[in-house]
């Protein structure tokens, strides 16, 4: 893990009218890190992610993603990142190959690149025989793994994962994280949000958002020491419990 | 076949339930599932998406007709006596099924009237929950946080004092604090005599149930108390941890006395074959240059059991 | 009963709190009737015309100034040759040319007949038709005033549509049409959508697993839209009478009753659509393309049924709006009593009953 910063955020803020969804958050993410972004629903995670993905212009503060400014270079950001969420998935009525071709094409990859890498990907996932099957016919766990592969197909510098393992069986969940590890080892930075606290342990560093602010940012082991907790779940409960009383009043 | 008497003693009895979807019935969503729930139990249906949990719930609440098998709820058959069942159960489907543009109070009043009752009549049942959302009673349901919506939906399902409560993935998409609070509420409800069936993809919630059914892709993997399921787990489990977890996992998998190994957050769980040698394993890992190595015996948990049952 | 009222109250709350939709529901009828009444008139005024007069006698001069004096025509040129007509049309300087043959007046006097040629720029056939009709009417009026018995050949047959509207006022035909359209939109589409919405958001499931009877769900949904429709009908009628000068010649009570009957027919249709689909989009789509569009085309409101090919005339019988349109025109514009429209009324009643029965039968008490 080198010290090159893939994301820098300095007092990044997003306001909707009187409501401050994201309140002056500052943090850095290094190349090749697995960066966990935790927080209760309504804490501002999704809003923060949208700003980093170039989908939403911040109200104030500064941030750069993959070297591009979040105000002025949103299109460049989008071209250089990958994105996957529980809700976004592949087109069920297209085949695996067609899906790959479509998304890779969106990111401007050449036909040669697509062809070669598709073969490689299918081999990796042991899906060679399923290449021309409709994605809808695959079991759920496979869809998620495939969706992740497609998200990083165009070799982005950073990939954003929004609760990618929701509702997936425990074995697939772990296989998914193996894929995340492999991606990180190959130099892709992984920015992931999750509700599974055991997954928080797999991250290099974790940040916990509460009421739009970053309440904690450190490695899992340091956080557990700081908060005198045995597991990340306990750390999270300690921090999030404070907020729960105020979150509803903010709305 | 279970006798009718047996069925009557159980609050819920499902026998060889089958559900198929698709024009040619090619999708087998529920594959001959049988289980029963005693009065006053908290029964968990544990499994990932696609396990068939929602289909089973819908069959039990009479919203779908089974394609095979049969089931009774409170002694009534889900096909023939659906009206009696619909009068007596409380149901909270997967999506938060409240009226977004009506206030907390309006939603609750509406559902009370639907069930020919009033909020006052059964207030004691929902009091503990309602006081948590009462400060927001004029607020539109659509503007509540996930945790609050969940509590309101629960109140609406309870307002008529049902004999059994069906909660379909009530904790999905809700933050960890609200999840914890929700289960505390369920425990209190159980003490008031309500039978509760809950479905969830979260394995750790299995431990909070009296009995559970583990499901995967329409099939029942196991039924019983969490303890009894864990007791059936054949092998010893070691919890292993080191400075670099990803390579550690690889090395564990390479060790042939390790049946299978999975990450479990802070530790990896290594399922060991019979007659394994712990010291040999430790030595091997140290030779692989794993720093800060920790190795200890640990109790398998539900997730370990689930994964083993899945693989069979 | 309390259960039912609770339901109706809930439906009202949904509607009243959705301000945007409410605005459309109540404002659209007013907007539509105003637009149709004022802007979309098919009247043409101040059309430019030219005269090719080979006679230049007292009759042709009188007729020319009569045409010019009317608000429909403005004389822009007097040409002397047929060839100039094409130039005029190409340059758009005139839309219609009246040609008087030589010895027009003397032929009238001595032969009792004289032709007039009306040449219209039919690149816009609607305008051409209208203008020739106007011109013909003016010429006919002139002819009547001459005491001699003369026949003037018609250059072009009168547009049938004009006959429905002797004073050539656009708004007469539109009021019944607009009422039909609004009721179809509000009742059919909105009712279908509101029921399907419950299915989409998941509350329908909860309602099913409860003591509520399906019929109560359906009726409770229909009641608010029935009331909104009555409000709409009244506002349309008020505007028609006081702003657009469209009189209600027949019985107001009869008109309102028939409108309410039609409202219920539309509601039933909406209910039926809602039992057929689980998505709001689909409900809207079916309502619009399956109901609304064909209704607008085939009910006689836009295009006369008599002009349609036989097969379409038969098909048009299926649409309730066709019968309602006839009833409204008969009662409102022609002032006829119930005895003249009992047949259509009966048909509407029959359709309503059929639709209601079909909806109830189709209503699924289970999810699949």
By CATH, the topology of chain A is Rossmann fold
Strand content of chain C: 5-15%
- The amount of helix of chain A comes to 25-40%
Q: What kind of oligomer do you see? A: heterotrimer
Helix content, binned percent of chain C: 55-70%
Give the overall form of chain C: elongated
Return residue spans of chain C where pLDDT drops below 50 for at least 5 consecutive residues: 152-168
The number of helices of chain A is: 9
Low-confidence segments of chain A, given as residue ranges, are: none
Q: Which homologous superfamily in CATH is the superfamily of chain A?
A: P-loop containing nucleotide triphosphate hydrolases
The SS-based structural class of chain A is alpha/beta
Describe the structure.
The complex is a heterotrimer of chains A (251), B (312) and C (368). Chain A has 251 residues and is an alpha/beta fold. Chain A has a single domain (5-90, 157-250), classed as P-loop containing nucleotide triphosphate hydrolases (Rossmann fold), CATH 3.40.50. Chain A contains nine helices and ten strands. In chain A, α3 crosses α4. Chain B has 312 residues and is an alpha/beta fold. In chain B, the strands form three sheets. Chain B has a six-stranded mixed sheet with strand order 6-7-8-3-9-10, sandwiched between helices. In chain B, strands 2-1-4-5 form a four-stranded antiparallel sheet, covered by helices on one side. Chain C has helices at 2-17, 19-39, 58-69, 83-91, 104-111, 125-145, 160-164, 170-201, 203-208, 214-242, 252-276, 280-298, 310-316, 320-333, 338-362, and strands at 47-53, 73-79, 96-100, 117-120. Chain C is elongated. Chain C is α/β, with parallel strands linked by helices and 368 residues long. Classes of the chains: A alpha/beta (251), B alpha/beta (312), C alpha/beta (368). Chains A and B meet through α6, α7 and α9 of A and α6, α7, α9, β12 and α11 of B.
């Amino acid at each position: 893990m080198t010290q090159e910063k893939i994301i820098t955020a300095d007092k990044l803020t997003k306001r909707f009218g009187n409501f401050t969804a994201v309140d002056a958050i500052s943090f850095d993410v290094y190349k090749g890190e697995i960066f966990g972004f935790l927080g209760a629903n309504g804490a501002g995670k999704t809003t923060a992610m949208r700003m980093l993905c170039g989908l939403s212009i911040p109200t104030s503060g500064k941030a750069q993603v993959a070297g591009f400014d979040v105000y002025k270079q949103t299109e460049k950001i989008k071209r250089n990142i990958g994105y996957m969420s529980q809700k976004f998935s592949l087109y069920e009525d297209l085949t695996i190959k067609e899906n790959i071709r479509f998304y890779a094409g969106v990111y401007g990859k050449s036909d040669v690149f697509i062809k070669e890498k598709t073969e490689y990907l299918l081999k990796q996932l042991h899906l060679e025989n399923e290449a021309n099957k409709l994605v809808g016919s695959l079991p759920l766990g496979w869809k998620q793994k495939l969706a992740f592969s497609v998200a990083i197909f165009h070799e982005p510098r950073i990939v954003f994962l929004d609760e990618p393992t929701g509702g997936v069986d425990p074995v697939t969940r772990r296989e998914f994280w193996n894929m995340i590890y492999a991606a990180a080892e190959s130099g892709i930075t992984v920015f992931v949000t999750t509700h599974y606290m055991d997954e928080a342990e797999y991250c290099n560093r974790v940040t916990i958002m509460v009421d739009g602010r970053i309440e904690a940012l450190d490695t899992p082991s340091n956080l557990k020491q700081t908060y005198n907790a045995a597991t990340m779940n306990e750390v999270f409960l300690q921090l999030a419990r404070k907020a729960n009383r105020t979150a509803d009043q903010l709305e | 076949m279970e006798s009718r008497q047996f069925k009557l003693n159980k609050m819920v009895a499902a026998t060889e339930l089958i559900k198929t979807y698709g024009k040619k019935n090619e999708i087998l969503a529920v594959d001959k599932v049988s289980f029963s729930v005693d009065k006053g139990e908290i029964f968990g249906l544990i499994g990932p998406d696609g396990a068939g949990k929602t289909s089973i719930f819908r069959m039990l609440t009479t919203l779908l007709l089974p394609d095979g098998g049969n089931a009774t709820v409170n002694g009534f058959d889900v096909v023939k006596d659906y009206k009696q069942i619909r009068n007596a159960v409380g149901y909270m489907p997967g999506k938060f099924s409240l009226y977004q543009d009506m206030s907390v109070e309006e939603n609750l009043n509406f559902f009370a009237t639907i069930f020919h009752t009033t909020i006052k009549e059964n207030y004691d049942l929902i009091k503990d929950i309602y006081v948590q959302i009462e400060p927001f009673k004029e607020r539109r349901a659509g503007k509540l946080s996930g945790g609050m919506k969940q509590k309101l939906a629960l109140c609406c399902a309870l307002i008529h004092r049902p004999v059994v409560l069906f909660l379909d993935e009530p904790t999905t998409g809700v933050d960890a604090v609200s999840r914890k609070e929700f289960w505390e509420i369920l425990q209190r409800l159980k003490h008031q005599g309500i039978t509760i069936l809950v479905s969830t993809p979260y394995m750790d919630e299995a431990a909070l149930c009296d009995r559970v059914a583990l499901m995967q892709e329409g099939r029942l993997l196991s039924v019983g108390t969490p303890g009894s399921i864990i007791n059936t787990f054949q092998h010893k489990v070691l919890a292993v941890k080191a400075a670099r977890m990803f390579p550690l996992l690889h090395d564990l998998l390479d060790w042939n006395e390790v049946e299978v190994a999975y990450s479990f957050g802070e530790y990896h769980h290594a399922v060991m074959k019979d007659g394994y040698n712990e010291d040999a394993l430790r030595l091997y890992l140290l030779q692989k240059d794993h720093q800060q190595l920790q190795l200890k015996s640990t109790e398998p948990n539900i997730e370990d059991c689930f994964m083993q049952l899945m693989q069979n | 009963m309390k259960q039912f009222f609770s339901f109706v109250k809930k439906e009202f709350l949904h509607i009243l709190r959705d301000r945007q939709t409410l605005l459309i529901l109540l404002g659209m009828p007013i907007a539509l009737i105003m637009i149709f009444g004022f802007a979309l008139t098919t009247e043409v005024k101040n059309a430019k015309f030219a005269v090719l007069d080979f006679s230049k006698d007292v009759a042709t001069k009188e007729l020319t100034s009569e045409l010019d004096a009317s608000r429909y025509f403005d004389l822009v040129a007097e040409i002397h040759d047929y060839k100039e007509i094409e130039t005029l049309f190409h340059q758009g300087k005139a839309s219609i040319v009246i040609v008087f043959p030589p010895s027009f007046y003397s032929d009238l006097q001595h032969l009792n007949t004289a032709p007039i040629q009306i040449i219209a720029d039919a690149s816009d056939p609607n305008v051409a038709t209208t203008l020739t009709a106007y011109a013909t009417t003016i010429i006919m009026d002139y002819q009547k005033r001459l005491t001699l018995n003369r026949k003037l050949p018609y250059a072009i047959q009168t547009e049938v549509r004009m006959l429905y509207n002797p004073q050539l006022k656009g708004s007469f035909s539109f009021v019944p049409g607009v009422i039909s359209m609004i009721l179809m939109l509000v009742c059919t589409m909105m009712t279908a959508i509101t029921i399907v919405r419950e299915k989409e958001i998941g509350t329908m499931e909860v309602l099913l697993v409860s003591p509520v009877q399906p019929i109560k769900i359906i009726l409770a949904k229909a009641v608010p839209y029935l009331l909104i429709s009555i409000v709409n009908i009244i506002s349309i009628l008020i505007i028609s009478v006081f702003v657009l000068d469209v009189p209600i010649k027949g019985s107001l009570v009869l008109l309102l009753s028939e409108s309410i009957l039609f409202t219920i027919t539309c509601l039933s249709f909406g209910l039926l659509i809602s039992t057929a689909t689980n998505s709001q989009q689909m409900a809207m789509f079916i309502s619009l393309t399956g109901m609304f569009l064909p209704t607008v085309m085939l009910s006689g409101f836009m295009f006369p049924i008599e002009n349609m090919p036989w097969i379409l005339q038969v098909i048009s019988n299926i649409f309730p709006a066709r019968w309602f349109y006839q009833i409204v025109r008969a009662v409102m514009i022609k002032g006829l009593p119930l005895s003249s429209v009992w047949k259509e009324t009966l048909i509407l009643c029959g359709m309503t009953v059929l639709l209601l029965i079909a909806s109830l039968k189709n209503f699924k008490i289970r999810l699949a």
